[in-house]
TrEMBL record:
Domain Glycine cleavage system P-protein N-terminal: 21-446, 458-732
Cofactor names: pyridoxal 5'-phosphate
UniProt xrefs under CDD domains: GDC-P
Stretch list, region Disordered: 1-26
Protein name, UniProt field: Glycine dehydrogenase (decarboxylating)
Native organism: Actinomadura fulvescens
Length: 963
């Protein structure tokens, strides 16, 4: 054998040697071909023409040189080594849990689940929709309320959303007051306050153990069990609140609800909380799925995403997102909330935890947890300490006058983090992972104790014991063996199209590679098993990684300071707008409340502005899709004295680099306003331009778009907010972690926390850190250039067949392009939706449908798709255009054709009597390559309206699936 036998197999011209080479799909040869196809000889020339000189930076990225994949892993191991994994018994809404291995590996570590998009195309999303419906059923059953969503971002924001919902339901015109249990989680109280201030709502906290204080409240929030561990009967306060016309919100612990009477049975109107302890690791604060359930009658005002049951074209049961007309992308400033990206992957995990354990399994975990807490309480009493609350579930509050610090330190020596309450009190929280050794270690910290008591004592009053059944649906009983569970996960996964199957060309969503090396660290115990309120000495690795990431993001965007706390783009928007609000207020400009938003903006912008207490004024776009400058100047003049900000997306949501952006920024600044650039489209800017340099004051970025956090089927996300120096004091802070906020918070003008956890979804930040570290400054810029090249290549290939709406200089687009179907629809009756559904028969996820322009498809290929895949997609679109032609020329019937009937299931094709005007072959295999690799949709086109009229949002009975 010759040595050359072992030579690398990459082509000798272009070995893929760096991470950037593998992240970027097209090889240099392919790039040359793509450039030639659009009439360019070099990437520099293309970028020079596509990106306006006025925004180009002259300062290259000052970032460390690219690391290789092994080097990045080694650096991440160093960070990990500087975190200390200590058994945390801190509680406060975050608890230890065992992620079943079958769920860890086959969901959290499985690209089939984590690279999927939000299920807006339900026909290719039946798997995750079923998992989410299971989640809703879990929440609905456990809380005792009929309708639950899937999902909210965390417990704190869920509580804040509940306050807003209660206010809507109250139909009050004035802001009014919201009463909060003093025993609510401290971070929840502060997130509520952050949200209340801009709306003028007064937040009153009070000890509710003795009943309601005097006053007029539109809503009351109770914590169940309380932060102190206390379990109290909800009924007296609920009844008293209802008597005063207030809505009752209960923030409840799902595991406790397996044993405790559910809030729905005590009269609660809204129940919120976190599903973290259902198998989702701490991750230093997130991501975890928050939840919300509501009583009958207010489901149509529920914030967030709701999965519902409907039927497909054959009348078969099928799932899809329900009541989307409440959401920000339709209702804009009138939406029920700004939530877009939620926490789908984590909701899927929590639902599967319930499927895996079933009701008896969950109850056994809860009983064991409770038993250990009861044993600790008994041991403490025997040792002479005072246990403050006789009724508790998992958390014991103990009074140890003057000794709290000393015992805390002792417990830490014994390897346990307890919660410091004050000099005289400690709290100890038990969870699924607690064992007899933990009980012994805790008791030992309090002084010499006798043998630990048996975990048998009971501290739940008989009247509060749960009697109603839950999780009775067969899905929670059918998958108990690991084999059955594995196959259930696989079955659902196979119903969906994720990035592991084909490109997902969704404009505005940047569905790029989520590299395996980026994903690896998130399940390492040193990142996964860290409680968000663990002592700062134990989290040094995390703080260094976060500090480095924030610095890098600041360098990439040209801002002075970045906060990673917001856990979605929408939350970054709110944080940024609150910073603007705080800044104006600090200068005595309280009256600056007008926010200008172009008509093309993403719906979250308007919804966030309203949440920040602003009034939205829409600025028109001209016929080329750009901001109409005449209208802009007219609106600036009209609102000069009240102008707070403009919110613009750059490049625009039309996928175009607007030449006038620097003028827009200047005009707004001249009028005393601030400029918010929505940075969700940063994939077209990284390394080429910095918003902080071309005139913007503040932006949010979407790490789940540009910076490789996978979309998870609809979340998690991270929406860091970056600001120029003058806004830095108004970044988010955190009540339990000063380090997470601005160094110099102005007296009383601080914004407060945007998320429940100090660094938001910290557990997934290693993904974006790894991406930047491995790409390096050159790789990042090349990725941007390649993304712009890919979009222009697709635009060039599609333009002869579909008009490309809106282009910038030289007929070029930025990182996405819009195929305009409107004339085709007028001529042939074939709609953009028909094309989207027909693409499923070709094995593709549709592009973004009818956003930002109705009747169009917006296509964003990203840099990660190679030329073969880009061509496969373009070929499919062109073949579909030919099919449309056959409708136009009468070969196909106008109503009975492969487009109107798409997608086609296997079952439709094997029916005895095929009566259509096209063949089965044309239906299933319109291009030859499909014979080799075919995705079969599990359902036909789904009837959206039917499901909204007949709203069903929990698991349908098995009979629903019978013929
Ligand atoms: C995705 C997106 C958002 C919202 O981000 P989420 O993380 O989904 O909340 C806002 N603006 C634009 C332009 C976007 O593309």
């Amino acid at each position: 054998m010759t040595a050359q036998y072992f030579a690398p197999v990459a082509s000798p011209q272009h070995p893929r040697s760096t991470f950037a080479d593998r992240h970027i799909g097209p090889s240099p040869d392919d790039q040359s071909r793509m450039l030639a196809a659009i009439g360019y000889s070099s990437a520099e020339a293309l970028i020079g023409d596509a990106v306006p000189g006025a925004i180009r930076t002259d300062r290259p990225l000052d970032l460390p040189p690219a690391l290789s994949e092994p080097q990045a892993i080694a650096r991440l191991r160093e960070f990990a080594a500087r975190n200390t994994v200590v058994r945390s018994m801190i509680g406060l809404g975050y608890h230890g849990t065992h992620t079943p291995g079958v769920i860890l590996r086959n969901v959290l570590e499985n690209p089939g689940w984590y690279t999927a998009y939000t299920p807006y195309q339900p026909e290719i999303s039946q798997g995750r929709l079923e998992a989410l419906l299971n989640f809703q059923t879990v929440v609905s059953d456990l809380t005792g309320l009929p309708v639950a969503n899937a999902s909210l971002l965390d417990e704190g924001t869920a509580a804040a959303e509940a306050m807003a919902l209660a206010h809507r339901v109250s139909k009050r015109k004035d802001p009014g007051a919201f009463l909060v249990d003093a025993d609510a989680l401290p971070q929840t109280i502060e997130v509520i306050r952050t949200r209340a201030v801009p709306l003028g709502i007064e937040v009153v906290t009070a000890d509710l153990s003795g009943g309601l204080p005097d006053g007029d409240f539109f809503g009351v929030l109770l914590q169940y069990p309380g932060a102190s561990g206390a379990v109290r009967d909800l009924e007296p306060v609920t009844a008293a609140a209802h008597e005063r016309g207030a809505q009752v919100v209960v923030a409840a612990d799902l595991l406790a609800l397996t044993l405790l009477r559910p809030p729905g049975e005590s009269g609660a109107d809204i129940v919120v909380g976190s599903s973290q302890r259902f198998g989702v690791p701490y991750g230093f604060g997130g991501p975890h799925a928050g939840y919300m359930a509501v009583r009958e009658g207010i489901q149509r005002q529920l914030p967030g995403r709701l999965v519902g049951v409907s039927v497909d074209a054959d009348g078969a049961t099928a799932y899809r997102l329900a009541l989307q007309t409440r959401e920000q992308h339709i209702r804009r400033e009138k939406a029920t909330s700004n939530i877009c990206t939620a926490q789908v992957l984590l909701a899927v995990m929590a639902s599967m935890y319930a499927v895996y354990h079933g009701p008896e399994g969950l109850a056994a975990i809860a009983e064991r947890t409770h038993g250990h807490a009861a044993a600790i309480a008994e041991g403490l009493r025997r040792a002479g300490a005072e246990v403050v609350h006789a009724s508790f579930f998992d958390t014991v509050l103990v009074r140890v006058p003057g000794r709290a610090r000393e015992i805390l330190a002792k417990a830490l020596e014994n390897g346990r983090n307890l919660r410091f309450v004050d000099d005289d009190h400690l709290a100890i929280a038990c969870d699924e992972t607690t064992g007899a050794d933990d009980v012994a270690a805790v008791l030992a910290a309090f002084g010499p104790a006798g043998p630990a008591p048996e975990p048998a004592a009971q501290a739940i009053p008989e009247v509060l014991r749960r009697e109603s059944p839950y999780l009775t649906h067969p899905v929670f009983h059918a998958h108990r063996s690991e084999t059955a569970m594995l196959r259930y996960l696989r079955k659902l996964q196979d119903r969906d199209i994720a990035l592991d199957r084909s490109m997902i060309p969704l404009g505005s969503c940047t569905m790029k590679l989520n590299a395996t090396t980026e994903m690896e660290p998130i399940t390492w115990p040193e990142f996964a098993d860290i409680h968000p309120f663990a002592p700062v000495e134990q989290v040094q690795g995390y703080l260094e990684l976060i500090g480095e990431l924030e610095t890098w993001l600041a360098e990439l965007t040209g801002y002075a300071k970045v906060s990673v706390q917001p856990n979605a783009g929408s939350q970054g928007e709110l944080a940024g707008l609150l910073a603007i609000r705080g800044y104006h207020a600090s200068r005595g400009d309280q009256d600056r409340t007008i926010c200008l938003i172009p008509s093309s903006a993403h719906g979250t912008n308007a919804a966030s502005a309203v949440m920040a207490g602003m009034k939205v004024v829409v600025v028109k776009c001209d016929e080329r899709g750009n901001i109409d400058l005449d209208d802009l100047h007219a609106k600036i003049d009209k609102h000069r004295a009240q102008l707070s900000a403009i919110m613009v997306t750059y490049p625009s949501t039309h996928g175009v680099f607007e030449e006038t952006i620097t003028d827009v920024c200047k005009s707004v600044h001249d009028a005393g306003g601030q400029v918010y650039v929505d940075g969700a489209n940063l994939n077209a800017l990284v390394g080429l331009a910095r918003p902080g340099e071309f005139g913007s004051d503040v932006s949010h970025l979407n790490l789940h778009k540009t910076f490789c956090i996978p979309h998870g089927g609809g979340g998690p996300g991270v929406g860091p907010v970056g600001v120029r120096e003058h806004l830095a004091p108004f970044l988010p802070s955190h009540p339990l972690r000063a380090e997470a906020g601005p160094a110099a918070e102005p007296d009383g003008a601080g914004v407060g926390p945007i998320s429940a956890a100090p660094w938001g979804s910290a557990g997934i930040l290693p993904i974006s850190w790894a991406y930047i570290a491995m790409m390096g400054p050159d790789g990042l810029r090349e990725a941007t250039e390649s993304a712009i090249l890919g979009a222009n290549y697709l635009a060039a290939r599609l333009a002869p067949h579909y008009p490309v709406l809106y282009t910038g200089r030289g007929g070029l687009v930025a990182h996405e392009c819009i195929a305009d179907l409107r004339k085709i629809t007028k001529d042939t009756g074939i709609t953009a939706e028909d094309v989207a559904k027909r693409l499923i028969d070709y094995g593709f996820h549709a592009p973004t449908l009818s956003f930002p322009v109705a009747g169009t498809l917006m296509i964003e290929p990203t840099e990660s798709e190679d030329l073969a895949e880009l061509d496969r997609f373009a070929d499919a679109m062109i073949e579909i255009r030919r099919e449309i032609e056959r409708v136009a020329d009468g070969t196909y019937d106008r109503d009975d054709n492969p487009l109107k009937n798409a997608p086609h299931t296997a079952a439709t094709l094997v029916t005895e009597d095929w009566k259509h005007s096209y063949t089965r072959e044309e239906a299933a295999y319109p291009v030859p390559a499909l014979r080799e690799d075919k995705y079969w949709p599990p359902v036909r086109r789904i009837d959206q309206a039917y499901g909204d009229r007949n709203l069903v949002c929990s698991c349908p009975p098995p009979e629903a699936f019978e013929d």
